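It is worth pausing here to work through a concrete case rather than discussing structure prediction in the abstract. The textbook approach is simple: state the sequence, then state the predicted structure, then interpret. We follow exactly that order.
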Amino acid sequence: MGFYDEEETANEYITMAEDYDGSLLIDVLSKHLPEHSTVLELGMGPGQDLKVLGQRYQVTGSDNSNFFLDRYRKLHPNADLLELDAVTLNTQRKFDCICSNKVLHHLSSDEIILSLSRQHTLLNGSGLVMHSFWAGDGVKEMKGLKFHYYTEKALKDLFSQNFEIIALVTYEELEADDSLYVVARTKN
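Step two, the predicted structure:
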């Protein structure tokens, strides 16, 4: 059972994320992705970003946590949800965009390489990815969950294997320059 499948830790996360507003990242995405495009959100958690994304896009939520998926389904019975691991992405469906908000930082560099390669195969034509990360160097562990921090150079190296980077921007989530987002398009 994973960290986010345990009711106690999942509820702690839900409480912590209640006041979080991911609209900044969704506004950035809207500059690069036409309305009504198909979007897969990786690691939807309690679904705050999923609801906002759904106002502009045909959105599919995904998580590796059955707790989060079951909770969201109870509140939104018609939601399009998939149980997916962010590395293997075991689905045959295709999307115009795949995005995540501070999800891929739980993966090692090797796992992100595998994930990005798999994402590349799940995108339609010249599809987009948009992912955010904690900025910095190193790895921290909290309650058994790893958080990998990334520099701009490290993200350029990871993404450039399968994607052409459109934007790589440092921004403030909790404090100045603590976060990075990447918007990238598939290489043909």
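Step three, interpretation. Residues 45 and 68 are 6 Å apart (CA to CA). Strands lie at 38-41, 58-63, 81-83, 95-101, 123-134, 139-142, 145-148, 163-171, 179-186.
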